[in-house]
Design brief:
about 350 residues, Rossmann fold, 3 domains, five-stranded parallel beta sheet
Length: about 350
């Protein structure tokens, strides 16, 4: 009988240890009321930061996981933010860095990140319409913004929280983080002019995207002021496949051997341009300069003479996370917006 009772007690203790921790568990460990614990976990503005930090640490230590159904029933929210991303990729794109930085920006908040893909042959509004109509997220973040972006128009019409990596023509009305590509174009062209370059090939972003307009305008303005002849690539963009960029650079250099500099809008297109000019028999930094931007300091290891400007994609993701949360919690507040001003080239 004693052994059976001991076994029963052990089993009961094991069952108790396996019970999922609840808000009441955290309340007991902190000495706070259950409503206070709940509000701290939900980042309520009337709860002090020290209390929030304490509650979140204990929740993490004991493995507390909120019941999503219960949260939605109480608040009407999913506590989910969706990052809607294109499926196209190359070896040096920003996708992984943007995902990790948005996820980092959501740490120590009630919100979780999901990634929703969309495909090249898909209506770009379709994945957003699904999220809005099913209520599967509280806000969305997306990129590759066009001037009159139908996704922005749809979400504003639905009054659904969102933030964009890039600016639309309605940027004054919505949250965004953007890199000043006009300033990049101006800095790049001025730096090449200072090196005595006279004929520049620009491998610009896809023309449908808004940042292409900004970059081309910046390059064009300074080229006109400094007496530089500008050739904008028409067969490829900075998002084109690397083998296509290599082939196009070789074709352009054969047809126009006076070109002495190339500006590109991505790391992958810069590497492809280098391959093209080297196969043409030129050397980076001698016959032809290359100027580009990059999110990770890499290109100087590839070819030290490439001229670069850094784009802070990590900062962008963290900012967009904050902007999306504010759009959820305080939709009447002025939208969070940031335009990253590029530093001087290296």
């Amino acid at each position: 009988m004693v052994n059976r009772k001991a076994g029963a007690d052990d089993s009961a203790q094991h069952s108790t240890n396996k019970m999922k921790p609840t808000l009441k568990t955290i309340a007991g460990l902190t000495g706070l009321a259950v409503p206070t614990v709940s509000r701290a976990l939900n980042d309520a503005p009337d709860i002090g930061q020290r209390t929030k930090t304490l509650v979140r640490k204990i929740a993490q230590d004991i493995g507390y996981v909120p019941n999503r159904a219960g949260v939605r029933l109480r608040t009407g929210r999913t506590n989910v933010i969706s990052l809607v991303m294109p499926t196209e990729h190359d070896m040096m794109n920003h996708t992984a860095r943007l995902i990790s930085s948005v996820a980092g920006g959501l740490r120590n908040t009630p919100f979780h990140l999901i990634v929703t893909p969309f495909f090249p042959d898909q209506d770009p509004v379709e994945p957003l319409r699904y999220i809005v109509e099913t209520g599967s997220a509280d806000a969305v973040i997306f990129n590759q913004i066009t001037p009159q972006d139908p996704r922005v128009a749809y979400l504003m019409d639905q009054q659904f929280p969102f933030a964009t990596h890039g600016r639309s023509d309605w940027a004054a009305r919505h949250p965004y983080y953007d890199f000043d590509n006009n300033a990049f174009g101006r800095l790049a062209t001025a730096a090449l002019a200072d090196r005595g370059r006279k004929r520049v090939l620009l491998i610009a972003p896809p023309p449908a995207q808004n940042y292409a307009r900004h970059m081309i305008r910046g390059v064009t303005d300074v080229a006109a002021d400094r007496g530089i002849a500008l050739i904008v690539a028409t067969a490829v963009t900075s998002d084109s496949a690397s083998e296509d960029v290599v082939a196009d650079v070789m074709d352009v250099l054969r047809a126009d051997p006076a070109i002495d500099a190339i500006i590109t809008a991505s790391t992958s297109s810069a590497m492809a341009a280098v391959a093209g000019l080297e196969q043409h028999g030129a050397t980076v930094g001698r016959e032809i300069d290359i100027f580009t931007k990059e999110a990770i300091p890499f290109l100087k290891l590839f070819r030290p003479d490439i001229m670069t400007i850094s784009e802070r994609v990590g900062t962008a993701g963290a900012f967009l996370a904050r902007a999306a949360i504010q759009a959820i919690k305080d939709p009447d507040a002025p939208p969070l917006q940031c335009l990253e001003i590029p530093s001087k080239p290296s």
